[in-house]
Amino acid sequence: MNIEFLKMLIEVVKCKSIRKASASKSISQSALSQEIQTIERNFNVKIFDRTHKGVELTEAGMIVYKHAVEITALYDKMTDEISNYQSKNQKLRISATSVACSYALPCTLYHIKNKFPSYIIEMETLPSNEIEKNIALGIGDIGIVVGKPENESFIYKRVYSDQYYLVAGYHMDVPSKLKMKNLHQYPLLMLSKTQKSRKILEAYFKEKGLEMNDLNILYDLDSIESIKVSAIQEYGLAFLPYMAIKKELYNKQLKIIDLEHFDFKCEYYTIKRKQDYNRSEHMSIISYIEKIIQKTVC
Q: Which intervals hold domain HTH lysR-type (predicted)?
């Protein structure tokens, strides 16, 4: 068993198919199957079950997969650090939500590169829950998530907030002011229930005595961008962060609806692993990011 095999195993889980994984890794399907059978014999366990949907991890397979992710992440981190040492460059891996990557960080990155020109910055866009999983496994140096992290073992810091507004397509026939009790009369476009900002918004409304099940949710979408496009097309109202809509407000593609007693902000936090941060060569640049991000949001 070697690192490349572990990466192939991770690819099988990602593709849910040995055939697709072998094609993506440019090896034969039979060779990959034999590698899997070898490790199954070595550990005397079955890693995958074959189903009509493809291959799925067994309980033992989940253990193998978990450690495969950790081992390959550590290996990649080691090779990165050696490469950085040899080239005298340093690499910072940032995982952030789509809103942070699209609207908060582009201008911040400009200032980072000016301050730390030798650094190579790698950005990855993921949902908050996936960012937490990756940072916990050592995949990435810093994460930027919505809300306080669920993993209390992280070092975390609030770095900026973004006001949410109820918006509609500019020409949509809807009053400029709405009472909370009348919100159910209009179709709503919402983020999917798995998204953390949706969960935080639901908790906010629950405190106001409003349950999401009482609202007329037309459909759920996976991204702020897709909701914004649907709102511009006047398919429904939407709760969106200001940084994602300010251009559309200026261009008169969207308009703000004044919802009675609605005052909601999403707080964004940086997260780091304690064991990495306390000995990290990246402490200076991470501290700089946390200091300037609020001031440099695009």
A: 1-58
